[in-house]
Design goal:
- The complex is a heterodimer of chains A (118) and B (113).
- Chain A has 118 residues and is mostly beta strands.
- In chain A, strands 2, 4, 5, 6, 9, 10 and 11 form a seven-stranded mixed sheet that branches. A four-stranded antiparallel sheet of chain A has the order 1-3-8-7, with no helix packed on it.
- In chain A, strand 4 and strand 5 form a beta hairpin.
- Chain A is globular and about 40 Å long.
- Chain B is mainly β and 113 residues long.
- In chain B, strands 2, 4, 5, 9, 10 and 11 form a six-stranded mixed sheet that branches.
- In chain B, strand 9 and strand 10 form a beta hairpin.
- The chains are: A mainly beta (118), B mainly beta (113).
- At the A-B interface, strand 4, strand 5, strand 9 and strand 10 of A face strand 4, strand 5, strand 9 and strand 10 of B.
Chain lengths: 118, 113
């Protein structure tokens, strides 16, 4: 089945630094990928839709200058948390969908990245 | 932006019992999907039900969908301790980008041996 790989799985960084998270679709092309954020014991909140070759579409309330998204190829999207602060600590998960598979097929999720900002 | 609500928020049962979780949503949908998440891990896709379907089975899982009530249920039959996890419903809205999902709050299921 289709696989989405997310890296790193865990990262600890100092306040003020930037962190890049990668999301790769391994055996299918994904013109669109999605980034979610999850706080402990809470649900997944959609942050943005990453579009290959164009700007990402951000959900209301998500700072696009804080969370930079780049989707430079059909198999890779990156999320960069810029000038990270402790409140950015969270679990970030990406998903991708095989756009060639038609309507009503599942999205595939990465393993998630646990970001801790100290 | 989350549009789903789930109940119960937590469910605790004994092995062998059935577990039922409910999900409600707000908009018209293409499909509704159920996912499982073990603590601190990624999501595992369980089942997808289309808007024109009413019931779907997969192994010990049974999902129902009532579009008139904008609700769905997930039944796990003959539960096992290994079923302990968080379960989320997610909807793909009609007219939205394919794969763009809105998640419910989730149900934390604990199955005691």
């Amino acid at each position: 089945g289709a696989v989405v790989s997310q890296h790193p799985s865990r990262v600890i960084c100092k306040s003020g630094t930037s962190v890049k998270i990668e999301c790769r679709s391994l055996d299918f092309q994904a013109t669109t990928m999605f980034w979610y954020r999850q706080f402990p014991k809470q649900s997944l909140m959609l942050m943005a839709t990453s579009n290959e070759g164009s700007k990402a579409t951000y959900e209301q309330g998500v700072e696009k200058d804080k969370f930079l998204i780049n989707h430079a190829s059909l198999t890779l999207s990156t999320l960069t948390v810029t000038s990270a602060h402790p409140e950015d600590s969270s679990f970030y998960i990406c998903s991708a969908r095989d756009q060639g598979s038609g309507v009503n097929t599942e999205a595939f999720f990465g393993q998630g990245t646990r970001l801790t900002v100290v | 932006s989350q549009q789903g609500e789930e109940d119960p928020q937590a469910l605790s049962i004994q092995e062998g019992e059935n577990a039922t979780m409910n999900c409600s949503y707000k908009t018209s949908i293409n499909n509704l999907q159920w996912y499982r998440q073990n603590s601190g891990r990624g999501l595992v896709h369980l089942i997808l039900i289309r808007s024109n379907e009413r019931e779907k089975h997969s192994g010990r899982l049974r999902v129902t969908l009532d579009t008139s009530k904008k609700s769905s249920s997930l039944l796990i039959m003959a539960s096992r301790a290994a079923d302990t996890a968080s379960y989320f419903c997610a909807t793909e809205s009609r007219g939205s980008t394919l794969g763009r999902l809105y998640f419910g709050r989730g149900t934390q299921l604990t199955v005691w041996p």
